[in-house]
Amino acid sequence: MVELALVIPIFLLLLIGMVEGARLVAASNGVSQAAREAARLATVQAAFVGASGSACTAPVCPASSSALRSNALAAANRMTLFVGPLTTGSLYLTCSTLGSAPTGAWTGGNDCASANASGNVVTVRLVAPIQALTPIFQPFWPGTIAGAASMAIP
């Protein structure tokens, strides 16, 4: 019985640590997949920002760049499972002209109305908060996880 009392806390700590680690990996994969999905949607819709009537040949033509951001955020939220719903402050969406290097400064980006030509690049970065389920691991927890994706406008 003494051996059991010494081994059980260590065993439970390892078991809970493995569950927390697996949850962190799953959440990271989910946020990366959500960023890819948001980038895919943004590349498809970016060429049609502001288009209406016969100029709108896509299934969805966002009225403005903010509508494009809302659509991308909605697509990202459909893909996140292990993190809560993402807010507009979690999404960074940029449209860059072909051949321009990314700046690395993750700001709100430009409005995607001026750089929405075919071949230009849409970059999406998502930052999601995440907390440990058990307080014992909270000091070692990253607090946020991020995922990013870039795709060319067709």
Q: Could you characterize the architecture of this molecule?
A:
The protein has one domain. Helices cover 38% and strands 16% of the residues. The chain is built from two helices and three strands; from the N terminus they run ααβββ. The chain has a three-stranded antiparallel sheet with strand order 1-2-3, with helices on one face. The radius of gyration is 20 Å and the shape is elongated. The chain starts with a helix and ends with a strand. The mean pLDDT is 85.
Please outline the helices and strands.
Blueprint: H1 2-46, H2 65-77, E1 91-96, E2 121-129, E3 144-152
Antiparallel strand pairs: 1-2, 2-3
Helix pairs in contact: 1-2
Short description:
This protein has 154 residues and is of the alpha+beta class. It has helices at 2-46, 65-77, and strands at residues 91-96, 121-129, 144-152. It is 38% helix and 16% strand.
Low-confidence stretches at least 5 residues in length (pLDDT < 50)?
Answer: none
Widest sheet: strand order? 1-2-3
Question: Per the principal axes of the C-alpha atoms, what is the gross shape?
Answer: elongated
Percentage beta strand: 15-25%
- The total beta strand count reads 3
- Using the CA coordinates, give the radius of gyration: 20 Å
Descriptive terms for the model:
alpha+beta; 3 strands; 16% strand; elongated
